[in-house]
Write a structure and sequence with these properties.
- The structure is a homodimer of 224-residue chains.
- With 224 residues, chain A is of the alpha/beta class.
- Helix content of chain A is 42%, strand content 21%.
- The first copy, chain A, has eight helices and twelve strands.
- In chain A, a hairpin with a 2-residue loop joins strand 6 and strand 7.
- The longest helix of chain A has 15 residues.
- At the A-B interface, helix 4 and helix 5 of A face helix 5 of B.
- Chain B binds a DNA duplex (30 and 30 nucleotides) through helix 8.
Chain lengths: 224, 224
Amino acid sequence: MKVLIADDDRDLLELIAFTLSQAGFLAVKAVDGSAALTLFESEGPDLVVLDINMPGASGFKVCETIRAQSAVPIMMLTARNEEEDLVRSLELGADDYLTKPFSPRTLLARIKALLRRAGMENSGPLASGRIKLNVEDHTVQIGAAAAVRLTKLELRLLQMLLVNAGRTVGSDRLLVHIWGHRNSGDRQLLKQLVHRLRQKIEQDPSLPQILQTATGAGYKLVVE
Amino acid sequence: MKVLIADDDRDLLELIAFTLSQAGFLAVKAVDGSAALTLFESEGPDLVVLDINMPGASGFKVCETIRAQSAVPIMMLTARNEEEDLVRSLELGADDYLTKPFSPRTLLARIKALLRRAGMENSGPLASGRIKLNVEDHTVQIGAAAAVRLTKLELRLLQMLLVNAGRTVGSDRLLVHIWGHRNSGDRQLLKQLVHRLRQKIEQDPSLPQILQTATGAGYKLVVE
DNA sequence: CCGGCCTGTAACCGATTTATAACCGGGTCG
DNA sequence: CGACCCGGTTATAAATCGGTTACAGGCCGG
């Protein structure tokens, strides 16, 4: 599990990196905003920790840029008097925040919670009922049928639904989880993606048994 | 999603309640500490917002009492120069704090983050008497009957009535909660919506047993 | 360079949902 | 009585939603 950390306070940066690596994470360090963006591209981390006050590009700017292209979980770090930027970050799609000073223990707990919520805690096969999703090689197996290959987006959709198997997941949450914060008017994208996924996993795509619609609310996965 | 708000400043209380209800939350208001505790018991909110300075029982006391029996997320409100108070609050188990004055936008962002963090972003079914409202997938179940699907507006109406089950809710409050502010000529909309909802949930829509009219005042839900 | 898949975008359809208006009947009050 | 106000009902128009088909650009491997 790879975590990108960006903070211009070297001491704090090292402390966080140490804490995380002790907990089994692979820490990637950046000392300013532009470095953070470069490293984000090249390393493809599973989670990002951003300080708001940074030279180069502010954490706020970095958050916005990352969110425009990825749905990776983002945690913001903020001093007590940076309320306004914090709120802007949250509205732009940051997932959580921590106010300085904080204890390493707290940081760790929050990061784990964030990963759990994003359904990224275990990279192994994710199964529920008769649906077995193999995240590694992008395949699903339903019942005794042959495994089907999924695209990146289909995988993310099915992953989110499978984590909440049996319960309805709102369209907004799906949009954020799959694409990050693009313009929210993109119901079209979700419509398409659901349609394409149904073609692959439903016996009769016109009468969905597995990926069902909750009209006006979202979609849900029916296992067994 | 039900939120209990406790503040002895009536104006602020109303402002917060209005902000939250516009955002789709159900606001339950308390003007002092003991009222807050009573309402906490009876309403079972998903989140609590507490002012520290209150007559009756202080925010501390309330926070402590609630925490002794529940893990519900708690957000404290504090005046700017009461740093010690907020430290004490956090030690007592509050999850976050906000210093006055704050903007509604900030409050909303923080509350959303808090709910996300607590993994409570989707509240379980909201039930009272024989009525069980499943907010997630827009359905109600009454008694042993089959679940009925509701539209967005019907859901909001029933939600508001269910929170105030047994009590009459004024037409104005319903209008504001469901549509947000509109020109007041819109009694027609409410009339329609009530009618459609009755068709769905009443055994005999012409003799309403559940969604009853309080002539000249509003509507109320009879749950027994 | 070609042909495949993956993704985003648009357009169309039918169904549902929401807004607007008109009509009905009871009750109130001058 | 008759002019209202109120709530219920019916009817109809407008907007939105979800499913579907079609197509274009990007990307990648042959």
